[in-house]
Design brief:
Strands 16, 17, 18, 19 and 20 form a five-stranded antiparallel beta sheet that branches. The protein is mainly β. The chain has one domain: Neuraminidase.
């Protein structure tokens, strides 16, 4: 099997289920080496659902009310302290991630499984565009979005269509299998349609974030042209963090390797906390990747 990429540093972002506090964690291998706890006043109802480019040019966080569906765009400084926010003008379906290379667009999922990509003005919170994706009714729970890194690509998973700027939506079945989705059409034309997918065999616990340690959530890759991996941050029912790496098939000369789970790493246990999408804030401002 070709040498597949692994990172020595992994940033994991977790949120307390009761207080809403957010803790940015830095791991070297399996060892927790840094933690930065923030209280943005979110309480138990507001959950971090994505990051964004930030209205001030620094990465921000996106929180959504679980009871109303309204969204709050949190403006952060370079130390991830809260310096402002903008509340959406309308409630929206549950958001599951940001389109990494166009971070004003966010993926949301309706109760019937259908995906709806939403664009917001980050400064005002106003919803300015929507693209309801054809052929997605009944799909598994959407967990994250990730993008490709260097050649070959796009898309971010070999063999899938790249209509979402080459980005791929990661879904997860009730049995824990990862099912990645590709699209035709485009956000610009507002005509996205789901048309290709790949279901992996290995199951992992519920996933909270994909590729948290690379710029705009790109795939892992050691050198140009080498195999590309997808890292996911999952969490067991007891609260234990579980890192898992999948072969995306990109750059891998062995076709049958695509979709294999090539590594896992169990980390610490955080009962009463859950994994959220804050990797871009963590590695851009708090724990730069060296």
């Amino acid at each position: 099997m070709p040498d597949l990429p692994l990172l020595s540093q992994t940033d994991v972002t977790i949120q307390n289920n009761t207080t809403g506090q957010v803790d940015f964690l830095k791991y070297q291998g399996s060892t927790l080496v840094a933690s930065n706890l923030k209280d943005y006043g979110l309480g138990s109802d507001w959950k971090i659902v994505a990051w964004d480019n930030g209205s001030n040019g620094h990465p921000g966080l996106v929180a959504q009310s679980q009871s109303t569906g309204f969204v709050d765009f949190l403006t952060l400084d370079t130390s991830a302290n809260l310096i402002g926010s903008a509340l959406s003008n309308v409630p929206v379906p549950p958001i599951f991630g940001v389109v990494p290379d166009n971070a004003t667009w966010f993926g949301s999922q309706l109760a019937n499984g259908q995906l709806d990509f939403l664009q917001f003005n980050l400064s005002t919170g106003q919803l300015i565009a929507s693209d309801l994706v054809a052929n997605t009714v009944g799909i598994p729970t959407a967990e994250a979005i990730f993008s490709w890194n260097q050649a070959p690509g796009p898309p971010a998973w070999q063999g899938l269509d790249g209509g979402l700027n080459g980005d791929i939506v990661l879904t997860q079945t009730s049995g824990g299998q990862v099912d990645v989705l590709g699209f035709s059409g485009s956000l610009a034309a507002k005509n996205l349609s789901f048309d290709t997918s790949f279901l992996t065999h290995a199951s992992v616990p519920p996933i909270g974030e994909a590729n948290p340690d690379l710029f705009i959530a790109e795939n892992l890759q050691d050198t140009p042209g080498s195999p590309q991996g997808l890292e996911v941050v999952a969490q067991t029912a007891t609260g234990q963090l579980d890192l898992a790496w999948y072969d995306t098939g990109l750059g891998d000369p062995v076709v049958s390797n695509k979709g294999i789970l090539y590594a896992t790493n169990l980390l610490d246990t955080f009962p009463s906390w859950h994994v959220v999408e804050g990797g871009f804030v963590a590695h851009n401002d708090l724990f730069p990747i060296s």
